[in-house]
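TOKENISE THE FOLD
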Amino acid sequence: MSLAQRLLLFILAGAGALWQAAAMAQNNAAPSAPAQARPTDDPDGADSDKPVRFRIELVAPGELRALIRNNVDLYRWRNSDAVTSELLSRLAREAVDEVRAALATEGYFSPVVESALKAAPDGTQVVTLSAQPGPRTRIGAFAIDLRGDIDTDPSRDERLKALRGGWKLREGKPFRQEDWDRAKRGALELLSQRDYPTPRVTDSRAEINPPAASASLGLRIDSGPKLRFGAIDVQGLARYEPARVRNFAAFRYGDDWDREKITRFQRRLTASGYFASAQIELDSDAAKDGIAPVKVRVIEAPPRQLELGGGYSTNAKITASASWRDQNLFGSGLRWRNDLRVDALQQSASTTFELPETGGGWVRSLGAEYKHTDVQQLATDDLTFSGRIRSLEERKQVEWGVQDIHERATPSGELTARSHATLFEYGRTWRSYDDLLAPTRGGALQAVAGVAPGAVATRSLARVIVRSQWLQPLMDKLDLSLRAEGGAVLSSSRTGVPQALLFRMGGDTDLRGYAYQSVGIRKGDVVSGARRYLLGSVEVTRWITDSLGAAGFVDGGDAFDSDQPLKLKTGYGFGIRVRTPIGPVRADLAWAERSRSPRLHFSVGVQF
């Protein structure tokens, strides 16, 4: 063989090797199909490499069908063109185990599950999936143990009792994996509220007895170390000094750990207007001798803000508002707020100066407001100057204040009356709610007393208001709300007392079913303020979900004068309740006593 022939054969052999290597690389780079087990049979002799059409027939109790659909892979392939007969056979077989696993999460541990695959006359493959769940496993015995540093704490037995008392998975309830996981998280959250911020589960077991359809649960928690608040480390400041943040703290150095105090600290910071965001955490890893530093990360809010708003309320109909805020006037930390509000019943303009919070936990403010109202045939114009000092502590809040009110009142068809009063006030509020923003249990009591001597008022007077509220869960997802209020203006006559200090009722937040401020001293079509008022309310709410509920209520009360008998007026109705990040939202349809026409009422937030 000549040299040329040998060279030609070498080139041809090399080209062949390169072509084979390229083909192998292309095959390796291509995405592989899911591994498929070789079916024992091929329905109707179909080619296993060709795509097939199929549908699923599910035979299962209605309340479990959605659970099965959401946890079986077979349903995820329904609209795919890549399903071959081999893959379909495998998916049908695997569906049996997937259904069993899904049912187990709901407490069904001895189900009968079958799948069958056959061809329909039109060539479509039909997968019949049947599931008979069997008896549902229910919770039997339960044991919870608490160990760790808390062993030497005198409150251990009390804390353990609270854990057991707050345990949601009671004997006889259905066992669900989701509920079991949630209950464990809830136990850790409850223990970590005070003293022990870092508990952990060291042993967790759910022993299932399928023949008896029962589950024995056991939980052991390590409390972790008992910690106290240390120094506050502030990050993210540009315009303010760290003291501006620390003055909002709800705790002092060395106080025992309390998660609610962290929540209140965070809420104060974001509500102050200085900060757009605040993140607070206890640095337990850096704890020394039981003292852990507190890390605060803030994002400062823009120092100046313009807000324009509009809305609708059943009291005042269409509302428009504007607000201008300077959160750092002249760089001093002084907050200046100007508000303008216009609706069908009242128009107001106000300005308020709020001084920076002090290290002692007090807020001081000065303000002025002009307000015009025209409600129930009574027009009033009020100019009020005020000064207030209140504590930051929300649980036991103290407030001192003074109001200098100058008023002009004009009843329809009558002459204008002028009055003024400088009222010195003192108030206390006690709150025992489980959550100050969105409470579900606990109560509140508020008492406010004031006096306006004759030297600084057209008529000397004393004024007292007492409000109370109590929230109590009756049973699972059923809550009771009780409310009682009363107030009195002690003076020789209503004449000369500004309407702003007297009482009228009716509307979204007191006597539902009645028009806004329509209950008071009536003279013809004019309703003016009374020197006494009483209000009571009973409300029951059934929660459909964790955040949506339906409520029924009865309100009763009256605004009356000292020389008139109390004539109780009642309103009743039903509504919806929605738990939101800004507090509870209420929408009610209410009827007044002996009235066939309902009124719609909206309100947001906790009453006080």
